[in-house]
Design brief:
Pfam families: TetR_C_24, TetR_N. This is Transcriptional regulator, TetR family. It comes from Sphaerobacter thermophilus (strain ATCC 49802 / DSM 20745 / KCCM 41009 / NCIMB 13125 / S 6022). GO terms for molecular function: DNA-binding transcription factor activity; transcription cis-regulatory region binding. Keywords: DNA-binding, Transcription, Transcription regulation. The chain is 72% helix and 0% strand. The protein has nine helices and no strands. Helix 1 crosses helix 2. It is mainly α. It folds into two domains: 52 residues, Orthogonal Bundle (Arc Repressor Mutant, subunit A), CATH 1.10.10; 135 residues, Tetracycline Repressor, domain 2, CATH 1.10.357.10.
């Protein structure tokens, strides 16, 4: 990467960080490109050099959140060998990531609903990607004999939908409990939905340090 490319990347990241703060404070619809330019210390033309419009900035932030979730979930899954432990690890890391990025989660899961066709298309892609991740690891559990045969495509959609609803409820609560407090019940319900025991062999449903 050349020096100019490095400077350009720094400016792009500065724009994204400024946009995230403004979107979180004012909402997607009320945020303006002028505000984003001023907050990022970049000219309006400089912002448009990197992003053709406000929606492009928003979609880039959405990609960032999705990539963070996917990377952390895949790493947590790879660190485990048992099928049940893999699913538990993925659930913990998803809840932990949303808990640590509440403003970003609210922006995408609540405030931006109806932000436009491109946003809806991107959200559908992300939903399918995460449901597919769940389905692949349920398939692995079936092959290993840990899980009874089940339509894993549907199960993946159900698991993702349940997690999405729990996180959305937490985001809408004006005085929410810690997100990790949902973990034991959500874990048990998801396990039972595919015929898995609601607890592991050790019966541990505690929230470990991430």
């Amino acid at each position: 990467m050349t020096r100019e490319q490095a400077r350009s990347e720094v400016r792009r990241e500065r724009i994204l960080e400024a946009a995230l703060a403004i979107f979180a404070r004012r909402g997607y619809r009320d945020a303006a490109m002028d505000e984003i330019a001023a907050a990022s210390g970049t000219s309006k033309g400089g912002v448009y050099f990197h992003f053709p419009n406000k929606q492009a900035i928003f979609l880039s932030l959405l990609d960032r959140m999705a990539a963070l979730l996917m990377t952390r979930a895949e790493a947590a899954i790879a660190a485990e060998t048992d099928s049940l432990a893999k699913m538990d690890a993925a659930l913990r890391v998803v809840l932990d990531t949303f808990s640590g990025h509440r403003s970003l989660a609210r922006l995408f899961l609540v405030d931006a609903l109806g932000a436009g066709r491109e946003f809806n298309t991107k959200m559908l892609e992300i939903h399918r990607e995460f449901a597919g991740l769940i389905a692949r690891h349920l398939d692995e559990g079936i092959r290993r004999g840990d899980i009874a045969p089940v339509d894993t495509r549907v199960a993946g959609l159900v698991w993702f939908g349940a997690i999405n609803e729990v996180v959305t409820d937490w985001l809408l609560d004006p005085d929410p409990p810690p997100l990790e407090s949902y973990y034991p019940t959500l874990r048990a319900l998801l396990r039972r939905s595919v015929g898995m025991p609601s607890e592991g062999p050790e019966g541990d449903v505690s929230w470990p340090s991430m």
